[in-house]
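Following up on my earlier thread - several people asked me to post the actual chain instead of describing it. Fair enough. Here it is, all 147 residues.
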Amino acid sequence: MKVFLDTNVILDHALDRSQYYADEATRILHWCATGLLEGFISSASVYTLTYVLERGGYQNDALRQKLETYLSWVTPLPTDALVFKSAFDSNFRDLEDAYQYHTALHTKMNYFVTGNLKDFDSGDAISLLTVLSPADFVERMAFLDLS
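Reply from S.P.:
Thanks for posting it. Predicted structure:
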C-alpha cells in the first residue's frame, strides 16, 4: 500500500506536536519503517523539514542524521512541470497543498494523509484520491498492528 504523507505529518512527529497528530504520525512512520506501508513525501517536504529542524536547534551531524532517518522510512518524490500545471488548473485555494496533492495523484498513491483536511475539500481531492487525517488513517489501517 502506497501512502503519501503531507509535510505536516512528518513535522508532527519531528516536533512531537501532541496537540496535533504526533502519536498517529509515530504509528504511521513505524509502519513505513518496518515495511508494512510504502511511505512517500514530496521532495519539497525535505526542504521544509530541513528548515524547521534547523530552526529547532538541529545542526550539522545531528540534522543530517535526523533527515537520513526520515529518508530511510519514506521516499521523496519529484515534482515536475506536469504536476505544477495540474495544480495550477485545480480548484485548490492553497497552491502548496495543490502541489503536494498532485504529486501524490500523479504517482498513483493509495492514500493522502494530512493534518490539514480543510484545505483538501475541493472536488479534485474528494473524487480522485482518498484524503484522510492521520487519526482516520490509523483507524483504517489498525489491522497493521496485528502483523
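The chain is about 55% helix and 15% strand. That should answer part of your original question.
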